[in-house]
Design goal:
The chain has 394 residues and is of the alpha+beta class. It is built from twelve helices and five strands. Helix 2 runs antiparallel to helix 3, helix 3 packs antiparallel against helix 4 and helix 10 runs antiparallel to helix 11.
Length: 394
Amino acid sequence: MTRGIRKERWGWDIAATVLVLAVGGLSLSLPESFAGSRWVLIGIAVGVFLVYALGARPYVGISDGIEDPSPAGSATIQVLLITLLAAGVVLEPNMLLLQTLVLPLIWMTSRSTLQAILVTIGNGIVLALAYAAWGGWVAEAFAGGFLTAGLSTAFSLALGLWITRIAEWGTERQTLLAELTAAQAGLETASREAGAMEERARLARDVHDTIAQSLTSIVMLAERARLDGSPAAVGLIEDAAREALLEARALVAVTSPAPSADSLGDALRRLGERFARETGMRVEVAASDATLARDVQVVLLRCAQEGLANVRKHSEAAAARITLLTADAAELRIRDDGRGLGGVSIDDDRGFGLAGMRERVALVGGTLTVTDSDSRGTDLTVRIPLVREKESAP
């Protein structure tokens, strides 16, 4: 309860020692009320010091890991302190100086604020009666005792409650700081996990759109070569394998396989030519050679690869057309004359790589639309605004 109001123990050791020496010196200077009374007063002062040193000291100062005293221990310490102080006041009212040590010890050895308040009030009543006993139980002695003890009690209560509130505030602050630190650690962990998940998703999209498509081509070309024994098919297999190897190396190096020197238009034309060789399908490419941001090029190239892969696997088309326009936005359109997607829409999140394509396009602020018709084929359009290009222009 009051652990927070404790100071370093060595400071209390010095204060207690100085107080006992001061009270002892004062006792020696006072006239004796009876033979040996001075030594009795000195013994009382030493007794208070011993109660502090042997009983209360572990609960004074910064006591991390030290529990509050037991109920019996707390009561024993406080009863001894009050008894010794009252005995000293009965003999000599100047012994009230010992309150400067006794009252703080009452607060620091209490197990609760309520206990500290009640014991402090009880101490004030006992001292008032002890003062009255010293004065011969006359009215003036009662008045003086209750006035002196009342002021000391009021000051002790006010100071104790104030310091206790500060201690509680400090404890609350430490708790909030610990919670904030834990929350920050949690956010950092969540951020790392989110980053890892995003990176896994990116790698999954890249593998799906590059290596997986190349391997699919190799499988289909191998089946074709096995059926007709065409040497051309073997060459196509070699080309597809080399492409897959390049893409794998690019992914391992965490670099984009998008062309570094050629334009996106050139990459799309090469993609169309290779697709036509592998499938025998007519492929037309009408692509702008405008320079686009690298991330936009990567997204558009990946969408073109995935779009053609869908045409290969699902459309049974005879022809396909790739169009790239660049004006206010980069617009990629892939159209085929096949059977369509069989009722599957972009929102179904099943098959055809549409979900991954939509996520990839969304990362650069673009949109993906798919128009499907059993009689007129499939029209896939990717539109990416070029606002960032304009904003970065001088």
